[in-house]
Specification:
By secondary structure, this protein is of the alpha+beta class. It is built from 7 helices and 17 strands. It binds uracil.
Length: 241
């Protein structure tokens, strides 16, 4: 996922095959309008979701969408899959219509096939990159049902971090709360491959069910049934971290 922002002359020249020197003139003549404002500066940057008009012709009109989905078990966190239903298959046409194509969406932090809960989808790569950036340390909250009883030992082991030989990393401190003998809440600030299952695997304690209820400041709606989704509000989008 690249950042889709360009300097105005590069952008117009790419879109319309116009010589960059002529674009300078167009700017001076006030022929380029971005988000309703006439642009005159060559240093103007065009962002992915800016509305761009040249001589009255719309060159770019893309809406940013942010979707919360309650992922059911058995649906794959991918945009295409030969075998399983994907999370994209669950989205109603109304959510991807109005200029937003399903193929433009990507998943912000996958869940395993047999994990349920809060999954975010967007076409805004800048937003998802920030959410997933290790520096941001965005918290992800999971409820985990285990085959064997939990003990106090788990709390310190999760807080200290565990060494994963395959990736040669030690996991970031994770917070584990024992909710009942077989149920824990785990808060991670990262998302390594099968991380929770592997961490409980250290105790030879198989995960029977895994559910994500929260990412950053956003909790899965209580009344959202499995497979349902909705658009995020602009407050939710900006208040994620
Ligand atoms: N950890 C896992 O093991 N699986 C998930 O889907 C998420 C976190």
């Amino acid at each position: 996922m690249q950042t889709k922002s360009f300097r105005i002359d590069r952008y117009i020249s790419k879109q319309c095959s116009i010589n960059r020197r002529d674009i300078k003139l167009m700017l001076a003549q006030g022929r380029i309008v971005i988000n309703g404002h006439v642009m005159r500066e060559i240093t103007t940057i065009v962002e992915e979701f800016d509305h761009v008009v040249l001589d009255g012709k719309v060159l770019q009109d893309k809406t940013a969408v942010y979707i919360m989905l309650n992922k059911p078990i058995g649906v794959v966190s991918a945009t295409k899959d030969e075998l399983h239903k994907t999370v994209i298959d669950l989205l109603p046409d109304t959510m991807t219509g109005s200029g937003v194509k399903a193929e433009d969406l990507h998943i912000v932090g996958r869940l395993d096939l047999n994990t349920s809960g809060l999954l975010l989808l967007t076409n805004d790569s800048r937003w998802s990159r920030r959410l997933m950036s290790p520096e941001e340390k965005v918290e992800k909250v999971y409820q985990v049902t285990l085959q064997n009883e939990l003990t106090e030992e788990y709390i310190s082991a999760f807080a200290e971090g565990m060494y994963f030989e395959f990736e040669n990393i030690t996991t970031q401190p994770a917070q584990l709360t024992i909710l009942s003998p077989h149920l824990a809440e785990v808060v991670l600030t990262e998302g390594k491959y099968h991380q929770i299952k592997r961490m409980f695997g250290r105790f030879r304690n198989p995960v029977l069910a895994l559910h994500r209820s929260k990412v950053g400041n956003l909790s899965l709606d209580n009344d959202m049934s499995e497979g349902q989704c909705r658009l995020l509000t602009s407050e939710e989008v900006s208040g994620m971290t």
